[in-house]
Design brief:
Mean pLDDT of chain A: 89
Oligomer: heterodimer
Strand content of chain A: over 45%
Shape of chain B: globular
Mean pLDDT of chain B: 90
Radius of gyration of chain A: 14 Å
Helix content of chain B: under 10%
Low-confidence stretches of chain A: 97-101
Helix content of chain A: under 10%
Order of helices and strands of chain B: EEEEEEEEEEE
Number of helices of chain B: 0
Largest interface: A-B, 27 and 27 residues
Distance between the termini of chain B: 41 Å
Number of helices of chain A: 0
Radius of gyration of chain B: 14 Å
Structural class of chain B: mainly beta
Order of helices and strands of chain A: EEEEEEEEEEEEE
């Protein structure tokens, strides 16, 4: 049971390049989310998914796309990288319960992304 | 959507003292309030959470209290130890049509330093 696995751990991109951050979980969690963490700003929700085939926007979705073709995987795509997207990106998953939901309790180790 | 304010931004205490971090939220329908601890360069980890049907929850040296009327919740750490030094984040559910869906909005974080 690996939990939430993110790849790569580090990445440097040039402005305008595209790339995909990978996230996989093996806990059969329904909910998966992507956050970015910038100094002094805490974590901000980019996109989330409540199950395979269902995604929605969070607080800061511009410049990012997601898809959820399987329960396990939730990749985050940067369409055209910009310096403002330099950040640490965390993927998280959580268990769904009937009648309520629990916030993300399992975070991956993060991807440190620098855009030059 | 929900707005979460966290105070103080930094907190310095002597080993053995207590530490209190407070968060206020705006959405009276919010029903789940977790606290995360993040050590330098590591992932956020859930340390305690509380639901709106209780006023207090304890786990050894850590406790969380909730005041629904005033819309604030607090983290209390007693008998602090140097290994408690970290950044602490509070969070509350973002709402979408009245359902939280497990996505969270985070406070700005509190840097706790415990001096030996």
């Amino acid at each position: 049971n690996a939990g939430v696995t993110q790849t790569p751990k580090f990445q440097v991109l040039k402005t305008g390049q595209s790339m995909t951050l990978q996230c996989a979980q093996d806990m059969n969690h329904e909910y998966m989310s992507w956050y970015r963490q910038d100094p002094g700003m805490g974590l901000r929700l980019i996109h989330y998914s409540v199950g395979a085939g269902i995604t929605d926007q969070g607080e800061v979705p511009n410049g990012y796309n997601v898809s959820r073709s399987t329960t396990e995987d939730f990749p985050l795509r940067l369409l055209s990288a910009a310096p403002s997207q330099t950040s640490v990106y965390f993927c998280a998953s959580s268990y769904s319960r009937t009648g309520g939901s629990r916030g993300p309790q399992h975070f991956g180790d993060g991807t440190r992304l620098s855009i030059l | 959507g929900e707005n979460v304010e966290q105070h103080p931004s930094t907190l310095s205490v002597q080993e053995g003292d207590s530490a209190v971090i407070k968060c206020t939220y705006s959405d009276s329908a919010s029903n789940y309030f977790p606290w995360y601890k993040q050590e330098l360069g590591k992932r956020p980890q859930l340390i305690i959470d509380i639901r709106s049907n209780v006023g207090e929850k304890k786990d050894q040296r850590i406790a969380v209290t909730l005041n629904k009327t005033a819309k604030h919740f607090s983290l209390h750490i007693t008998e602090t130890q140097p290994e408690d030094s970290a950044v602490y984040f509070c969070a509350a559910p973002l709402r979408a049509g009245g359902t939280s869906y497990g996505k969270l909005t985070f406070g700005q974080g509190t840097i706790l330093t415990v001096h030996p």
